[in-house]
Amino acid sequence: MAHEAPPNRYTGFPDGFFSRMDESPDANFYLEPRLVTHIDEAAIEAVQVCYDELAMHGEILDLCSSWTSHLARRPARLVVLGMNEHELDCNEFAHERVVHDLNVTPQLPFADACFDGAVCTVSVDYLSRPIEVFDELARVLRPGAPFACTFSNRCFPTKVIRGWMASDDAFHLELVAEYFRRATGWEQPRMEHRNAGRSGDPLYAVWARTER
Ligand SMILES: C[S@@+](CC[C@H](N)C(=O)[O-])C[C@H]1O[C@@H](n2cnc3c(N)ncnc32)[C@H](O)[C@@H]1O
Question: pTM value?
Answer without folding.
Answer: 0.96
